[in-house]
Design a protein that fits this description.
about 70% helix, about 0% strand, mainly alpha, 5 helices
Length: about 120
């Protein structure tokens, strides 16, 4: 995701919709591939991933987070918070879809096995 963030910065001078879309796809991917015992991790993944990527961007290229009336000399924390708020819609979508997938997978893993439904050898 950090790579996508820097590509978007190169293209548009700031993180935005491309990073948000990537967050949604990455979060869904994690929710689909983790083991059933690790579904909690997938459920808390989206906000942690977003904060991590924004922190990397703010430290390495602070101007890549340009949100509203953010002052030019804003610090790392201000830029991370501004970026987090700016991408809140994508985060809500990513988190909601991830939690739906986690709930469905959790429900499926607790279902009793049907007789005769073993996978073919």
């Amino acid at each position: 995701m950090a790579l996508v963030a820097f590509i978007e910065i190169l293209l548009t001078d700031s993180v935005g919709w491309l990073l948000g879309l990537t967050l949604i796809v990455a979060s869904l991917g994690v929710a689909l591939i983790v083991r059933p015992n690790d579904l909690f991790t997938a459920g808390v993944f989206p906000p942690l991933l977003l904060v991590s990527v924004l922190l990397v961007v703010a430290v390495l290229h602070g101007d890549g987070i340009q949100v509203g009336r953010l002052v030019a000399d804003a610090g790392v924390a201000q830029r991370v918070i501004a970026g987090f708020v700016h991408l809140a819609g994508a985060l809500v979508a990513a988190h909601a879809l991830t939690l739906i997938v986690v709930a469905l997978r959790g429900r499926m893993s607790r279902r009793p096995k049907q007789p005769g439904s073993s996978p073919a050898h």
